[in-house]
Amino acid sequence: MRVLVISDIHANLVALETVLADAVGRYDAVWCLGDLVGYGPNPNECVALVRELPGLVCLVGNHDKAVLSEIDINVFNGDARAAIAWTQSVCAPETFGYLAGLPARVLQGDYTLVHGSPRQPVWEYILDRFIAMENFPMFSTPYCLVGHTHMPVIYKQVGLNGDVRDEAPDYSAPRALRGERLIINPGSVGQPRDNNPDAAYALLDTASDIWEYRRVPYDLFATQSRMRAAQLPERLAARLGYGW
Ligand code: ZN
After folding, report:
1. How much is the pTM?
2. Residue 242, SS3 per DSSP
3. Ligand 1 mean position to 10 CA, how many Å?
4. Which end of the chain is more exposed for a tag (fewer CB within 10 A), N or C?
5. Which of 110, 159, 108, 157 is nearest to 135 (CA)?
6. Are 112 and 105 contacting, i.e. CB atoms less than 8 angstroms apart?
7. Spacing, Cα 25 to ligand 1 middle (Å)
8. Distance from residue 234's CA to the centre of ligand 1 (Å)
């Protein structure tokens, strides 16, 4: 099966549409690792588009839960809180209904899917190889796909003592996963945080276990102007320009 792997769309419809156009004809199913909403200007449109994608498996993220009032929004910083409150004010009943039905952890063959980490599926950030090391015992498949940090990276378990190495994404060639134990982050569609403003996603062939990292520039000025028109925090609009 050819899978489009996306995460952290964050209501950035222009980025999502650009990713879908870039990947067109190259996937039969879609795995979405959560945070469909929060930060960006088009939560209803993004949810409506995602839920119709073919072969969709969609996880819930922490921002989705916050918009549903299922978690205390005081754990977020001021700008994120403002964006969550704005999102709550514009979300349609069908958007809330869809988000409320999303699972936190899904198994797909050799792949465990979560938003944050296999240890804490909604909340934990796998920010370095030490946190990754603690998470390898928390899933039993060869591979675990995560989002949440908005940073594309592969963590690889090596040797018998549980050591973990990290690999930066290689955009020049696909990577064969080869049954290694890996935690893989595709990066963020709607708010990249690796100093590269281009939308990030991945293509995965589950028959051959080949992973391909992709970046695609999108019209971020269009998203920024929609955010300013909605009076979302300026810092959230500005950060799209530098990818952090
Ligand atoms: Zn996110």
Report:
1. 0.97
2. helix
3. 7
4. N
5. 157
6. yes
7. 27
8. 18
